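Example 224, ligand calcium ion.
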Amino acid sequence: TENGRPQSDLAGKRIVITAGGTREPLDPVRFLGNRSSGKQGVALAESAAARGATVILIAANLEVPAPTTVQLLLVSSALDLERAVTETAADADAVIMAAAVADYRPATVRADKIKKDDTGDSLVLELTRNPDILAGLAAGKKPGQVLIGFAAETETDPDLLLALGRAKLARKGCDFLVVNRVGWSEGFASDRNEVRVLDSAGDIVCEASGTKMSVAQRILDLIA
Ligand code: CTP
Ligand code: CA
């Protein structure tokens, strides 16, 4: 190719990629969600397939079309996503957790729509912690499998951002952690991304900025 990267350096590899943002149901018509568009995960899936991998894309509420070159599993909530990723991770060479997974879900899902007349001027929701899917995958990882997590942080100081990333890496136990800053305008909906990737020792192994597609290629280079 143009940049000298072989076209099929991921041939024969099975890669599971989660993308998008989970939605946690509250009642039949409402959910708690986040602003993840799924663009970075979709770029990873598309690039990995183009480089010869068999890609399973676990897609949570994408705002962009899924590539036609991947096996698509549609999920919505964090618990759905957990089920799909644990089933498919068992025989995967790499798992990339690009999805924004809700940390909490409503403690109860109402059978009927919540009505203002029943709740009054304020409504308190009780939320329950969702399982940490990435930490679970790390605990059950087979030898040789590469596990990549993402860390979305609003911290603006680059050194503090990195420190948060290192602490998160230690908690998760993944092989690589892609650290990126998110905010009202950067990260989620954008077509561009700026990331630093840490290895399991906490060292920076890659710094990439540009389109989400070019960042995807650099992340896949680490797997290749
Ligand atoms: N993740 C996960 N399961 C969760 C929450 C997050 O697998 N219940 C994954 C995400 O897909 C991402 C990584 O963990 O790859 C880091 O997500 P992030 O929200 O940045 O970290 P948290 O551990 O949830 O910490 P916090 O939100 O408190 O910063
Ligand atoms: Ca979180």
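Summary: The chain is about 30% helix and 30% strand.
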